[in-house]
Every structure is written in structure tokens, then in C-alpha cells.
Amino acid sequence: MWRLARRKRNAVSLKPTLPMVTMSYGVLMLAAVISIVPFLYILSTSVKDTNSLFSYPPEWIPDELFWGNYAKLLQETSFLNWTLNTFMIGLAITVLKLVIDAMAAYSLAKLQFAGKRFVSATLLLAVAIPVAALIIPLFFLVRSMGLLNTYWALILPALANPLGIFLLRSFIVSLPDDLIHSARLDGAGELRIFAQIILPLISSGLVVHAIFTFMLQYTNFLWPLVAIQSDSRQVLTVGISSLKSNFVVDWGLISAASLLATIPITLLFLALQRFFLAQSLSSALKG
Amino acid sequence: MNDTTVSATEHRRLRRWLVLRRNLTAYLFLAPALVFFGTFLVWPGLSLFVQTFQTGGVMSPAVFVGTENWERTFADPLVLKTIWNTLRYCLMAIPAVFVIAMIFALALNSISVGQTAFKTMIYYPTLQPILIAALMFTFVLHQDFGVLNIVMRAIAGEPVNFLGNEDLAMPTIAMVEVWKGMGFWALLFLAGIQNLPKDLYHAAELDGAGPVRRFFQLTLPLLKPTFFFSVTFATIVNLQVFDSIFILTDGGPFHSTASTTWYIYRSLFTFSEPGYGATLSFVLVLVVLVLTAIQSYAFRDRR
Amino acid sequence: MASAAVEYRSVNKVYGDFVAVHNLDLSILQREFLVLLGPSGCGKSTILKLLAGIEDPTAGEIFVNGNLVNYLLPRDRNVAMVFQNYALYPHMSVAENIAYPLKARKWAARDRTSVRDKVLQAAKLVEISDQLGKLPEALSGGQRQRVALARALVRDPEVFAMDEPLSNLDAQLRDTMRQHLIALHRRVGKATIYVTHDQHEAMTMADRVVVLKDGVVQQIGTPAEVYNAPTNTFVAGFVGHPRMNFVPGISLGGRSVRVGKLDLQSSCGTGPEGEPVMVGLRPTDAKFEASLNCIRGTVSASEFTGADTIVTLSTGLSEDLRFRLIDSSSCDLGQPAAFSYAAEHVHVFDKGGQRM
What is the pLDDT of residue C10? Predict the structure, then answer.
């Protein structure tokens, strides 16, 4: 009740003036147009055949919808493979990383042990190491393991990134210590506390972490480009870009691929929007 | 009352056992993370250093060549050019994306109706891999039928070859990255603004501070922690710029968009010189670490 | 009795430079309700945490029923704790919360019906049976407190440790819960260590009170002992409401002291003649009459509380003194008044604050 009253008072008193609101809407309209128009543009390109593509002046909505690009994409390229690979690998990484990072985060947040400062300092320092600088030794490491051109080549190195540990740690740190003390007195071992007390109570943190991990993997380009050579095992990002490296650039085909590739992630976004836009993301990352 | 006695040695033994058990538990929880961290981050990091003194390794076994890679690196004008290009790119992209995102965040903060809808639309480009953004812009910028050139034709009478021009190519790359990044930072800044203590604003309003003064005297200084995180994070990420360059220009024209990461990639796959690439990578690590350290110093709390 | 329920032997706890507990020797008897009383930061909660295994002692030994527990995990100590903020698991229902100690000890797998019975029994004991399906967030503060109690009870531990369990409740609820806790303790009959900063709680609940200051035990005794014969000015000032008046005086030798221009008889010795002493007078021990052994002055304020009136008297001494008056009709502002003390109610402390 009190919070509600307080919020209301703030809203009333700090209400922006009318010109400010008008200006804000103007800015946001422009922002929305800039953000969305390129997508409409490729949508339009993807349903044109090669002839009407280069017509001048260009037409936004072609007289006749041309589905040939999509048919070609699904029939003549490994697009479906790429999509499947991307989501399988992304899912594997997300699940594994969630468990690994949450365990480490619990240890760093709530357990006492020798060398804790050293471990967290080392992990934190590693956040500043540019991953791009490691692709050469990583390439040789993965090759010597015989994993080059396999899904494992994409999954395993992704598990090393310590950023997620710190994200989850900030969620666990904010849980009251007494809750854990109480569980210990109640007879729970650390693994039971982790599984039955910690994990359920940081579920929103886990979702944020999962989204972050998945998106990072979904948008990854350089490492799959280096580690995967076979077309059928490739992921979406590199796969689509390989469509461009032919002598004749098939704009309609690339448009269709780009547009289709946005659909799954858009659905995911709409389903979990609350978490994508969550304020917890920024506050957690700052910690 | 009680005849239990425990000797000092027994105390020490029990104590050691307790401490050992605690350490063991904590490290068991850390173990999976540390195994992957060690194998796929620390170990490559160390072998990177070793590789800077080697040559070959792709088709034939690697051979030690002493400091040859390092000497070549210092003599290679392209190395300096890629570092300069990378920094130039960061100086264009980061301030631009931050200013635009801050304007969007302030605009979002001052409206209530339709906020979620605008947030969703502005955030949308961030969802897509930069590759898709880059491909999209290839069409948008295309000399013959790109929408931007349709506009340019209307204004200037002739199309502009954005990516084929040495002076325009890098700003164009930056523009693509800004387009993709603006939604992410806008929402991050918005969250920061909405977490600020409201009481201060009431006080400022009573003091007669207008919205512009409130922004520069209150919002910006109070957002310092958010900015520190943002600048550091953006620097680390942007110094590795690769995807958009690989797709849009492949370093050209005349290496005007060749970034350090692009050169690393090329030295491995085009020139088959992993040792030289390792040296370049090492230089990139140093650049990132130095810039991160400088930023931490600049943003330290002045007490 | 074979052994104390809990025994602390020369226990110390130091955080860096800060001594939280200094050389604690303390026994809690079987079935005893022992209250640790002191201001915040006096180390009373730390003493509980040491017992529960949440903190390790820097030195010393802690025994539960004669067994050394220093190096045991919290779960193996047979101590149940009730936390100040209840520490209920927010994602579990009341019933799941109460059952958790049994579940965590793998009782559940062994015998499902007996877990059910135990939970119902514990819930009934704290009168929360009708809330079993709710989540903690749907409960009031008092109900949460009861759930926390039930969760401690269900394990049937040797010792209960309670860390300011009533401090988050409003005054009226605190009264009810206090009575409830005392009744519960009588029924369960297990040793209980209860931490509080509220002297009223300590006095009404305790079998024995331990008064603490800066990690050091000031006095251990029954509430009556602590109240009637405080060992130093700290205990004297901390226990009893309204707070004891302290006035500087001079020993006259034997059993009398001079305070200002008045001579007071005490039942305890006052030390050698001419020594400065501190005289303690409880507002509640005063009789409103002019006789021997009395303090005179002018009424400068009076606070009517309902049952009595607290009168503030200007006496020409360095501080104004306060007295309790049962009948306020005969005491007006600005009028002279006198309050007398029986000799056993005149407490005398030496320069260092220790009782003579």
C-alpha cells in the first residue's frame, strides 16, 4: 500500500511536460521506423523475383508475390540443417552452462573456502580477455582433441566463459544467509540446499542467464566459421553468410534466409519478453 | 559437571578435518566450471603466448622461430593500421550508440502509454545476429537498389557507394553496429534511470532545476556505475569487431576496414600463418587489457 | 543430572580486531529457559551462532549434552534455531516448510505417514493447522513466527536457539507470542537459549538471565537476582523500566552515603568514608512520602501512563531524577515533593561501576 502510494506521488509530481512527451513520442516513432524498416525491406525483397528486384523506382509491395526464394532456400541449401544445429547446440550449451555456472556461483556467493579471493579474481580478470584473440590456440586445441568439425567443438569452449557465474552470483548473494543457515540446521547437505533452496529462489536469474547464454551462442559467428567446415553441420549465422560468397549474389535468397532466421528468435522473444526486457539484467550485470 | 575432555591435538585434528571438508565441498561445486575454464580459456591463453614464438602448425608440425613473429609484427605497417582502424571504429561506434541509446532511454522514460510496444520494437534489431544486420544493410546500402541510395538519389542526385569508399566504409560499418546495439543499450540505460532515487529529483525540482539541468547534474552523475559497466563491456566487445566487416567489406577497400580480429582470422585461414596470428592476438589482448585498465582508473571513485 | 544441555568453556570469537565474545563460560541446564540479554552488538547473537555452527569459535569448547560440537556440521548438533526474520523457505508451503527438517534428514523416504503426523502435531502445537497449504508470503508476521517454531519443534532437538524471535512483531502480538512461547517451553521441556535486547521479555520469560555487554558476561542470575542485586551500573541501568536513576555521592562509611545535601541509608556497604560512589535508585522502588531516607525536590514534569505516573523531580543535583507514583492526585507541577527509599533499594556502586 505504502509503495503504491509512494509511486503514485512520484508519478504525479515528476510528470513530464506536454512538449517533452510530444518530443519523446517523435523520437520513439523515428526509432521504431529505423529499427523495423530494414526488416520490412528484406521481407519485400524476399518475395520478389530477380527481375522486379532491380526495377526502378523500387516497389515495396510487388504486384505478384514470388515464393521461389523460399522454395530454393529450403530445397537447395542446408538452411533447415543450420537452423536445427543452431538450436540444438544453443540448447545444449544453455542447459550445461546453467548447471555449471549456478554451482560455481553458489560456491563463490555462500561458501567459505581457502583461495576464494584468488579464484574470483582470476575468473573476473578472464572476463576482460577478448575471445577473438583465443581462436588460434583454441583451433589447435580442438583439432588435437579430434573435435574439429563436430558439435562438441562449438559446445565445449562456450562453457568456459565465466561471465555467467558473476551474473548468477549476484542473484545468489542477495538471498538471505539465514535461509541457508536454516537449511543446514534442518539437516540439508550443500547439494540439497543448492537444488531445493537456491535454484528455485533464483529462477528469474536462471532465465536471464539462459537467455543471455542462448543469444550469445545464437549470434556467434567467428568461432563456428573457424571450427566447422562441413556445410551440413554449420550454424545459421555462418551458413547464411556463405550464401553470399557465390559469384552471383542471390539477393532474394539471402533475404528469404535472413527473414526466416529471425522467426524462431522472434517467437522466443515474444514468449519470454518479460525477461528480455527485465531490469534485473542490468542490475545483475553491474554487481 | 561434565567430565568430557578433548586434548589439544585432538582439537587440531578435528579442526583440520572440518576445514578440509568445507574446502572440498566448495571446490566440488566449482570443479565443473574450473575444468572448462582451465581447458578452454587458461590453457589456450598460455599456448597463445607459446605460439607467438612458433611458425607452421597447420599442415606441418610447429617449429620454434624465436622472436621472428614479433619482429615481423613491429615491422608490418598493416598491424598498426588494423589497430588504428579498430580504435577508430570504437571511437565512432561507442559514443554514437551511447548517445542515441541515451536519447531513446530518456524518451522511453518520459512516456507511459505504449512504452512496452516501443521497447519491443527498439530492442528487436539487438535480437538478430550482427550478420543478419550486416546482410540487411548490404541491401539497404546497395548502390543500385538500396533504400538509402534511393533517398540519396533524391537528395544529391546520385547514389553513394558507402562500402566502396575508403573514407565512408568504416563509418558505415560503425553505423550497422550502432543500429544493432542501440536497443540493447537503450534498455540498459532505461533500467538505470528507473532505478535512480526519486527523492533527489523532487528536491531538484523544488530547487527549480529544469529538465536539462536535472539530466546533466543528477542523472548523468548518478548513472556512473551503469556507465562504467557499459563502457568497459562495450570496449571489450567492440575491440573484437569482426562479423560485420567480414560480411560487408572483408577488410576493404584498401584495408580501410581491416580490424585486428579480421587480420588474425586471415593470418590463420588465408595466409596459414598461425604463429603470426598468435602474435597479433597477443597484441589485441594487450590493447584490450590496457584500455580496460585505463577505464577502471578513469572511473574509480574519487573520494 | 548427568550434564548440562549446553556448555560453553572459555569461548572466544574475534573478527579481525573486534572481539565479539570474550572468554564465555556458561552452562545451560536441561529444561532451562535461558535468556541472553544485551544491547545490539554485545555478542549475544554470535553466542547462538557459535552453538548452531553458523560461526566457528576462535577459541574454546562448546558441548551439547556433554558432546563436543565445535567441529560438527550444524545438522549433527541437535540444535534447532528460530531466526529473527523467520528464514522460512519462501517457495514452500507452510506444511513443506515444517516438513523440511524431516525431508532433509531423509525421514520422508522412510515413513511418509509419520512425517505427516509429525507435521500435523507440530502445527497443532503452535496453532497453525489451518494455514498448512499457504505460502509464507500469505501469512502475517505472527503466523510466520509460528511456522518457524513448528519447523524447529518437528525435529525434536535437544536444544532450541531463538534469535530475537519476537522483535519483528507488533507490541500486542509480542505479548501473546511471549505467553505462547513460555507455555510451549513448559510442554516441550527442552533447554532453550533465547536472545533478546528487550529487558521486559528477558524478565518475564527467563529461568535465568545472562546480561552481556561488549562480548563480556556482566551477570548471570534469575530475573529477581539480576533486578534486585545488579552487579554493576550497566546491568542496573539495562534491567528495569523506567531506567534506574544514577546520582553521584560520597560514602560516609558503614552503610550510608551522602547525595547532595541528603544522607541515604543503604543495606549494602558503601566503602571507606569520603570515597566517591554512584548511587542507584529505581523509580519503581520509590514511596511518595517524606520520611527518613528520602529525596526532595520540585516536580518539573509528570507523565501519566494509565496505571501510574512518572514524576520528574528537580533536586538541585546534576541530573533530574524520575520516580514512579501510583496515585497522581497529590502531585502537581512546580510543587515540592519527596520520595523515600527502603535501605535495600538504595544501590551503591563504586567508581568503576561495580556493586559494593
Answer: 92
Cis peptide bond N-terminal to B253, omega within 30:
yes
Alpha helix positions (H), B128-223? 130-140, 147-156, 166-194, 198-206, 211-214, 220-222
Q: Is A17 helix (H, G, I), strand (E, B) or coil?
A: coil
B290 pairs with which residues across the strands?
none
CA dihedral C331, C333, C334, C336 (to 10 degrees): 20
The total number of residues written for chain C in this structure:
356
Looking at residue A17, its pLDDT comes to 76
- DSSP E strand boundaries for C200-275: 208-213, 216-221, 245-251, 256-259, 262-265
What CATH architecture does domain A78-286 belong to?
Orthogonal Bundle (1.10)
**C-alpha span between C249 and C215 (Å, rounded):** 30
Please provide residue A257's backbone torsions phi and psi, each rounded to the nearest 5 degrees: -65, -45
Interface test with A, best of C76, C82, C98, C100 (most A CBs within 10 A): C100
| Contact between A149 and A223 (Cβ < 8 Å) | no
**Which residues are CB-contacts of C313 (< 8 A; sequence separation ≥ 6)?**
C295, C297, C298, C299, C300, C320, C321, C322, C323, C337, C339
Give the pLDDT confidence score for residue C241 in this predicted structure.
86
Better pLDDT: A58 or C281: C281
Give residue B124's pLDDT band: very low, low, confident or very high (50, 70, 90).
confident
Phi, psi of C36 (to 5 degrees): -95, 120
DSSP H helices in C57-170? 94-104, 107-110, 112-125, 141-153
CA angle A95, A96, A102 (to 5 degrees): 90
A201 → closest Cβ in C53, C80, C90? C90
CB-based contact C62:A193 (threshold 8 Å): no
Q: Give ipTM to 2 decimals.
A: 0.86
For the segment C258-307, what is each residue's pLDDT rounded down to a tens digit?
888 888 888 887 788 888 889 999 998 888 887 778 888 888 888 888 88
Of C3, C7, C71, the CB nearest to B14: C71
Candidates C10, C71, C72, C77: best to mutate against B (most CBs of B within 10 A) is C71
C348 vs A124: CA distance, rounded Å: 62
CB A191 within 8 A of CB A102: no
Residue C249 near residue C279 (C-beta atoms within 8 A): yes
Q: Give A57's contacts in chain B (Cβ within 8 Å).
A: 150
Rounded CA-CA distance C255/C259 in Å is 13
Say if residue B144's pLDDT is above 80: no
pLDDT per position as a tens digit, A101-152: 999 999 999 999 999 999 999 998 888 888 888 999 999 999 999 999 999 9
Assign a CATH topology to domain B70-298. MetI-like fold (1.10.3720)
User: For residue C250, what are the CA distances in angstroms to A278, B216, C292?
Assistant: 70, 66, 18
Cβ atoms within 10 Å, residue C68: 18
How distant is the alpha carbon of residue C335 from its chain centre?
38
Q: What is the pLDDT of residues A20-54, one digit of tens each?
A: 888 889 999 999 988 888 888 888 888 887 766 66
d(CA C52, CA C75): 9
Average pLDDT over chain A, rounded to whole? 84
Q: What is the distance between the alpha carbons of residues C6 and C79, in angstroms, rounded to a whole number? A: 10
Contact between A197 and C73 using a beta-carbon 8 Å cutoff: no
* pLDDT at residue A14 tops 60: no
CB-based contact B303:B94 (threshold 8 Å):
no
Residues of chain B with CATH 1.10.3720.10: 70-298
| CATH 1.10.3720.10-classified regions of chain A | 78-286
Nearest to A200 among C87, C91, C151 (CB): C91
Domains and CATH numbers, chain C: 6-237 (3.40.50.300), 245-349 (2.40.50.140)
